[in-house]
Write a structure and sequence with these properties.
This protein has a single domain, classed as Alpha-Beta Plaits (2-Layer Sandwich). Helices cover 21% and strands 35% of the residues. The chain has helices spanning 18-28, 82-94; strands at 3-13, 41-42, 46-50, 67-79, 104-112. Strands 1, 2, 3, 4 and 5 form a five-stranded antiparallel β-sheet that branches. The radius of gyration is 15 Å and the shape is elongated.
């Protein structure tokens, strides 16, 4: 078995914006894994919480207010390419996510080759 080095990107998205974020990501990159494109995983609903501080431009809640909102985790993997990752984060996720600071996580891992 051959393992491919990949970035695993996870982002938490309000449920009503999941398709918008996925469409934005797929417009920037086809998320190809072997003979499949637009490969992504959408996890069960969860809850995120945050308190906007001075200087924030919150979509939900006000400055100083603790906010809890429904959220869904969206994940995808791409080969380790820093420029590709930067395009996906900026033009694919941030440009289509409703929060001014979305919760985006990037891990370096491996996955079996197709």
């Amino acid at each position: 078995m051959r393992l491919l080095p990949v970035y695993r990107v996870s982002v938490y998205v309000p449920p009503e914006h999941v398709q918008r974020v996925i469409d934005g990501v797929c417009a920037v990159d086809d998320l190809r894994i072997g003979a499949y494109a637009h490969a992504a995983w959408i996890s069960a609903p969860a809850t995120e919480q945050f308190r906007p501080l001075e200087g924030a431009n919150p979509t939900l809640g006000g400055i100083g207010e603790l906010v809890r909102a429904p959220s869904v985790r969206v994940e995808f993997c791409i080969p380790r390419d820093a420029a590709r990752l930067a395009r996906l984060v900026e033009s694919g996720i941030r440009a289509h996510h409703p929060w001014d600071v979305p919760a985006i996580f990037v891990d370096e891992t491996t996955m079996p080759a197709a």
